[in-house]
Amino acid sequence: MEAVIKDAPGYDNMELKTIEEPVVHGDLVKIKVAYTGICGTDIHAFTGEYRNSKTPVVLGHEFSGVVVEIGDNVKNVKVGDRVTSETTFTTCGECEYCLEKDYNLCSNRKGIGTQVNGSMAEFVLSREESVHVLSDKISLKAAALTEPLACCVHAGLEKTIINQDDKVLIFGPGPIGLLQCQVAKAQGAFVILAGITKDKDRLDLAKSLGADVVVDVLQEDLQEVVMKHTNGYGVDKVFECSGAVPALNQGLPLVKKKGTFVQVGIFANKMNPLDQESIIQREITYIGTRSQKPSSWHTALKLLEEQKIDTDKMITKVVPLKEWRQGFEAVMAGNEIKVIIES
Ligand SMILES: [Zn+2]
Ligand SMILES: [Zn+2]
């Protein structure tokens, strides 16, 4: 079968290659891939900044497809099922985190598309426990966005809980920020979404996805906008989805006293200046959130089934597997929202 392979560390070193089809056994499920989302981490793998993956490896961890074969121990997934899958391929099964199904925190977890072969291919393997059969209300295209949506569910409904009366500020109108916005709107919150001038189209899209107010922080005074909409108190919760240090420090003083700041975006550097004064004086709870876990997937799929998340508007480009490079280039050029590969 054909597969997009990261051959070696460093810049690029990627190509479409013909490799053996994966073989099922035990609790594994073989999935004929329909769609795979190109994620920021895939781009980092391309540029060589993401060192977490082993090479050679087939990339792709946000996917949907149809089951074509199952291992002997698979009980609840059948051939022909339309599915998506969590990215967890194996875990240690013994640590405190595994026992709580916090697989995102297991130190020995192996992920699909990073440490084991992923879905930018005709077929991919996943373990039965990670596979979710789709309701017929969820299209295969929409299902390819379940993984990033689950990350936003984990951030917004598990690490903290967005309430109906909350005023929420989100930084970064990329795919994650736009999904975080929709998760917040699904809860009934008031959402202010902040971006920069080059995000104009994304901010427009955010409005059509339900954001109450969008702000270009280079053109408008964000503090003024936030204070105007919050009676001078600041927002209940900030979701920093841009990974930009200026956003972090612009956001902290805009959190209401006793409010919450959730760090979703990943920074380029490990150490950054941080406005501790605001954290202390405003008694801010600063929360880190990493990836997603099984409970996040259940909620994400429920949101998709209830049509609370508009994925159609977010998928702005679909490329065939053979043209994966075009897809990656489109993401890097920054003119698309979500690019997905059709296998
Ligand atoms: Zn991803
Ligand atoms: Zn573990």
Description of the structure:
This protein is α/β, with parallel strands linked by helices. It has helices at 40-47, 96-99, 140-143, 146-159, 175-186, 200-208, 222-229, 245-251, 276-281, 294-305, 324-333; strands at residues 2-6, 14-18, 28-37, 57-58, 62-70, 82-85, 88-90, 110-111, 123-127, 131-133, 167-171, 190-195, 213-216, 235-240, 255-263, 285-288, 315-320, 338-342. The strands form four sheets. Strands 3, 5, 6, 9, 10, 17 and 18 form a seven-stranded mixed β-sheet that branches. It binds zinc ion (2 copies).
Write a brief structural summary.
The chain has 343 residues and is α/β, with parallel strands linked by helices.
Number of domains: 2
Low-confidence stretches: none
Q: Architecture of the largest domain, CATH level 2?
A: Alpha-Beta Complex
Please provide the ordered H/E string of secondary-structure elements: EEEHEEEEHEEEHHEHEHEHEHEHEHEHE
Q: Tell me the span between the first and last alpha carbons.
A: 11 Å
Could you say which overall geometry the principal axes of the C-alpha atoms support? globular
Report the average pLDDT across residues: 97
The count of β-strands is 18
What's the helical proportion of residues? 25-40%
Catalogue the ligands.
zinc ion
Q: Gyration radius, to the nearest Å?
A: 20 Å
Here the CATH topology of the largest domain equals Quinone Oxidoreductase, Chain A, domain 1
Strand content: 25-35%
Fourth-level CATH superfamily of the largest domain: Medium-chain alcohol dehydrogenases, catalytic domain
Q: Give the class-level CATH name of the largest domain.
A: Alpha Beta
